[in-house]
């Protein structure tokens, strides 16, 4: 039956990613995907091991998409311009693909993580930080700071946390990026 409908692991992963954007990443299962294709769950097991495998595949797809977008946005940019472009990629991706964005936070086993586009994300973040002349361990602290601020802000914004008061969240986002730039330029020494 799977051959009849042209199912492949890649097609199933893309469909599951779209489903995640519609219903939420946590709601995506092999059973839900089988219902979407109107096939028996068993027909999907020749392409997928289980729901964990499916979620891992969605996470890998999301990381790859984000890395590709970030690389394109960063090309030819440095300093605050690069920082803002990088931040905006994450925020825009989360707004366009909320389920995939959640998937990009899915915990991967160490071997899978090391082979994923997550490595490219870390490399791009560190490339941005080279423009701020941070040495280790400050660079690692800054990577964690940026990830925390970007993810925290996006999560709160997507949850409606900033929709009840002025100024609008775009103005705050711009001010936060400005503040991060200023902090990185004047990184405190212990």
From TrEMBL:
Keyword vocabulary terms for this entry: DNA-binding, Transcription, Transcription regulation
DNA-binding region in chain numbering: 29-48
Pfam family, one: TetR_C_33
Keyword set includes Coiled coil: no
PROSITE patterns according to UniProt: HTH_TETR_2 (PS50977)
A Gene Ontology molecular function term of the record: DNA-binding transcription factor activity
Domain HTH tetR-type span(s) in chain numbering: 6-66
InterPro entries given in the database record: Homeodomain-like_sf, HTH-type_TetR-like_transc_reg, HTH_TetR, MT1864/Rv1816-like_C, Tet_transcr_reg_TetR-rel_C_sf
Name of protein: TetR family transcriptional regulator
Species this chain originates from: Streptomyces noursei (Streptomyces albulus)
Taxonomic path: Bacteria, Bacillati, Actinomycetota, Actinomycetes, Kitasatosporales
